[in-house]
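This week, look over our next protein:
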Amino acid sequence: MKKFRTLLTIACMALVMMVTCVKARAMEGSGTVDDPYIVTDYAEFAEKLNTMELYGANWYEHVVQEAPPTYYFKLGQDIYSEDKINDDMILSFGRARMDTGTGWRACSSENFVLDLAGHLIKRKTKSTDYAIIYVNSGTLTIEDSIGGGKVESEFDTAFSYGLADVCYTIFVRDIRRDLVETYSCNLVINGGEFYSHNGQCIYARDINGSVTINDGIFDGVVQVDNVSRNNSSLYVNGGTFSWLSHKGEGYIRDCSITERLYAAGFISSKIDSNTIVTVDGKRVYNLDENELEGNIVITDPTKPKITSQPSPYVFPYVGASQTFRIFAENAESYEWHVRDDKGIDRSWEDLASKGIIQLSDGHIYNNMLSLDKANVEDRLQLYCVVRGNGYVLKSKPVDLTTEPLIKEIRVEIENFDDAVVGANIGDFTKVNLDHLSHGTASDATWYNYYEPAEGKMEWGESYEISFSVDLDQGYELDPKARCIVKTPKGDVVATKLAGSNETHANFEFSYEPPRPENGIKIESVSRSVKEPVAGEAPAVELDPLSGAEAADCPYAVQSMTWNPSPESFVEGGQYVLIIVYKAKDGYGFYDDTEFFMNGNKMIVDEVVKGSGGTAKVVSFIKAKAAFKITKKSLTLYDTIAIDFKIPKESMEGYHDPFLLVTMKTK
């Protein structure tokens, strides 16, 4: 029995831990604009709001903060709270007033953004509370990024300062006593639908702040009253109302009201002078009355009007292009946005870097958006924000989807722009696919006459370059898909080879390397010339090249001179041989090109680089002594006398076993 109790205790502890873990994971996110809190549980949402560490939590210290933080919440599903008596399910934004001992103060100034994201918040309960959402201080902004989001309250009983059986969907709290003016209480509604089963939809009474409504549907009374402080403001830029009641500052620019408009004695000052007011289809010119009843339409003719929405489009394949357009009247600017399946806006740069969407030429053209090479893996939506005359309108969202059929693969070989004659083949084997081809490529193999090619690229040779591509999971290769390879000579289409299938393909293309921009480098020039001999005239010709050498020679001799250039060389004279070589078209001399004459390295005086360039080189050569043969008819064993007019030390010790020579030296 004891063992059973122990096991039961362990099981209960495990269950508690599991519940705790599940609850901890229920609200994901960090509360930032890019990573909002994702709300999927009503009770947890209420608890989170009540336990947040807000600015001014030390309410007894009066602190002024210039830029209060903003917390972002987003509904991940419909959330409910119902059939509980006096529960703690108030969605309370900002700290309520607190008694410091010397008076009452508002205690926080945070900003809150709640995105309904097409979901429902509903509270149905028996309670002495009189609202589902309280705005205590700071600013609450409610929006609906998806469309169709709702906030609905259904109280069986309610209590509200003597207003029996009245409850609100949203209540902007009264914080009158010893109000700290640095804190304010504001509500902004940009969209959504708001329902109250007891007739009161939104109520703000004597607040130090404002209620601004830009859009939305309000089934119930929207009431903003000023009791004593003359600081409750209502600004209406759009929306559909059943009953709109206003005491205080502000204006009504554009909206429709199905039952009643009440503006407490100065209705003409509450309706913007640009607007047109009709009641039951008839225009009203005199607005001195306190109250209007019927179907009231207040229209601002300067408000932008979207006349043509963007059209949905299914990209037929990865890499397809499409242009979206929107047309609107009175529009001053257009901003195109794209959001993911969580309703979070994504930056164009982020989507492009991840290969999801790429802007054509990187541009958004005002009311036109051109997408190129779209690849929508997740559910994305495109919409446009239209601004004009102080209004902000959103177009209807457009779903973006793409078939996973790849009809084009684009390939780049690393550093391929440098693949020219003379470059090392091994430096050009790494193959990369662009970010919209969705796969990986093998290294490239170079062939020349069906044999693997190595070493340096040669002029006039044609190479076959082959590689393979394996597609990522979920993608298929269209049977007619093209593979485009970027080369220094322009894009080429690679040929699909045998062994290819839907997810793997072998490709090959021909490549003839071009000459470098400065011409094919002439590595070295080695020639010979008859050395100067005393008494002889200077030679002006180099030794001739053979037929094959002459045909392939990448240069020509433009000029050759001796300096000085006498009628005949003088014994022991020092002479300079100056040669100007000119490279043939497509070839060029470089700074490190080497020049040799009679096996000795020449001095480079000047190089004009580039195709068809020139090189001026010099060599210092000393004239040899002339020699005489005194006996013209000789036999093997004859003794001859040769008069070498060269220094004695140059010939001493010389002996030829087959020829007896009598030498006379100086």
User: Anything to note?
Assistant: Residues 258 and 295 are 4 Å apart (CA to CA).
